[in-house]
Amino acid sequence: MEMTQGFILVGKNPGLFVLGEPTHDRMDLDEKHRALPDPATTKAYILPPGQGIIIKKGTWHDFPVSCGLPVSAFILNTEEVVEALASMPSAAPMNHGDCFKLRLSDHWDFTLKFPDPRPFVQKLGLVPTPIAQPLMGPEGYGAGMRREEVAPGWGSGARVLVVPVVNVEVFTPGCGGPAIQPHLQSVPELANKGWRDYGNRRGLQRLAQMFKEVGIPATAVINSEAAQLSYVAKALKSSGWELGAHGLNNSSGNAKMTRAEEEAHFKRCLDDLEASLGTRPATWLTPGFSVTERTPEIAAKSGVKAFLDFVDDDVPYDIVHSESGARTLCLPYCMETNDFSLVLTKNFDARQYAQAIEDHVRQLAKEPGEKVVCLGMHTFVAGTPARVLALSEAFGRLKACPEVR
Predict the structure, then answer these.
(1) What is the CA radius of gyration of the chain?
(2) Most CB atoms within 10 A, among 35, 72, 239, 380?
(3) Exposed (0-12), middle (13-18) or buried (19+): which is 8, by Cβ within 10 Å?
(4) Is the distance from CB of 379 to CB of 365 less than 8 angstroms?
(5) pLDDT per residue over 7-41, tens digit each?
(6) How far, in Å, CA of 64 to CA of 84, rounded?
(7) What tens digit of pLDDT does each residue of 179-211 get?
(8) What are the Cα distances from residue 293, in Å, to 116, 134, 144, 217, 221?
(9) How many Å from the N-terminal Cα to the C-terminal Cα in the chain?
(10) Alpha carbon 313 to chain centroid distance?
(11) pLDDT band at 125 (very low <50, low <70, confident <90, very high)
(12) Closest C-alpha among 81, 82, 64 to residue 73
C-alpha cells in the first residue's frame, strides 16, 4: 500500500481525524469532482492516545484535531511530501505530486457537521479528566449576553408573583414525545399520541375555564403548528391569556442551527402565530430547552420582551446583548413546580401535585424580598380533570394570601 503520511498520537489525549475516501480514480465522477472529497464518503474517526494511523495515497485528510483537550501527534511523511511542504512559504492550496492541498470553502457552499466528540470520548474513558462543555457565554446567559438586576419594587407590593405558563404543543407524527405509558412503542402508536392530543382538545379548554373561575391571569406558550388547529386557536383567542411563542413544534428545537437558520426559525414562528391568533407574541420559551449560544440574543432582536428559558433564580432579571444593546426580561421557569417534574418524573398524584405548588409559593411568601414563580403546565398533564380540580382548590387558597398575586 502506498502511503503519504502517518500519524501517531503521543501524550494522554485522543484525536479526531476527518477522512475521505480517494476520488482521483473514480470513473463515476467528472474531472472537477475527482479533485474534491465526496461528502457522502467523508467521515470522522476518533483515535485513542498512543495509537497511530497510516494514510493511504489519495485519501483526503487533515491533521488531527482536539476532542476537547490538547492533542499532540508524531507525523511521518514521505520524502515527496517533505519537499512539498518545505517549499511552501505559508499554508495555502497546492498541487505538488503526492501533496495536494485545497481549501474546501473555496469549493463547497455547505459545511459538514459532525457530533460533538467530547461526550463520546468522556463516556468511553478515552480522556483522563472531565472535559469542560461549552458554556452559554461567559455568564451562562448566551454569547455576548450579560445579566442586569431588576430594581426592587417590580412586584407592586406583592411578595410572590405567580405566573402560570401553559404549554400548548404538538409533535411530529412518528417522532414520539412525552408518554403516560412509555412501554407502548409500536408504530403507528395510538395511546400516547392520543393522550397528548387530548390535552389540546379538552385539557386546554379545561385549564382556560379554571383560570377564569379563580381569576388568575395565565400565559400560554404555543407551538405555531398547534395554533393552526382551529379548536386550539379558538380556545386561545377566548382564554384572555397572554399568548407567547414556543417554536414550531416540540419535536424540533434550536440546537445545532446556524445563525441564519435560527433567525429564520424565530421569524417563521412569530409570523405564523400572529397570522393564526391575531397578535404577535412577546414571550418566548424554546421547545425542550434546545438552545444555541445565540438563542437569547436572537430572541431579543426578534422583539421578544420576556424570555423563559433560564431556570436559575426566584427573581426576574434582564439580559442584555453587549454589542447591540438588545434587551429582554428573564422570568425564571421553575423546574420544581413543573408538571413534568412532579407528575411524570416524581409520579405525584393530583393532590400531591397541587400541594407541592402551594407549598412552594407559601414558602417564598415567607422569605424577604420579591419573588416570581413560573408554573410550567402542559395541557395533557395539568389539564386532566383530577389535576384541574386539585389546582383550582390550591389556587383558591393561595388567592387568600395577601402576599401572593
Answers:
(1) 27
(2) 380
(3) middle
(4) no
(5) 999 988 899 999 999 998 899 999 889 889 999 99
(6) 20
(7) 999 888 888 889 999 999 999 999 999 999 999
(8) 15, 9, 9, 32, 21
(9) 77
(10) 20
(11) confident
(12) 64
Provide the pLDDT for residue 98: 66
**Cis preceding linkage at 188, omega within 30:** yes
CA distances from 250 to 149, 161, 303 (A): 31, 27, 22
> How many CA within 13 A on the CB side of residue 1?
10
Q: What is the 3-state secondary structure (H, E, C) of the chain?
A: CCEEEEEEEECCCCEEEEEECCCCCCCCCCHHHHCCCCHHHEEEEEECCCCEEEEECCCEECCCEECCCCCEEEEEECHHHHHHHHCCCCCCCEEECCEEECCHHHCCCCCCCCCCHHHHHHHCCCCCCCCCCCCCCCCCCCCCEEEEECCCCCCCCCCEEEEEEEEECCCCCCCCCCCCCCCCCCCCCCHHHHHHHHHHHHHHHHHHHHHHHHCCCCEEEECCCCCCCHHHHHHHHCCCCEEEECCCCCCCCCCCCCHHHHHHHHHHHHHHHHHHHCCCCCEECCHHHCCCCCHHHHHHHCCCCEECCCCCCCCCEEEEECCCCCEEEECCEECCCCHHHHHHHCCCCHHHHHHHHHHHHHHHHHCCCCEEEEEEEECCCCCCHHHHHHHHHHHHHHHCCCCEC
Pairing of strands 99-101, 145-149: unpaired
Distance, CA of 177 to CA of 167 (rounded, Å): 14
Q: Output the CA–CA distances (angstroms, integers) from residue 88 to 79, 123, 151, 279, in the order listed.
A: 15, 40, 60, 61
Amino acid identity at 123:
K
Angle made by CA atoms 338, 344, 349, in degrees to the nearest 5: 90
Pairing assessment for the beta strands 145-149 and 15-20 based on DSSP bridges: unpaired
Q: How far is CA 148 from CA 37, 305, 320, 330, in A?
A: 48, 15, 7, 10
The residue with cell 403507528 is: 188
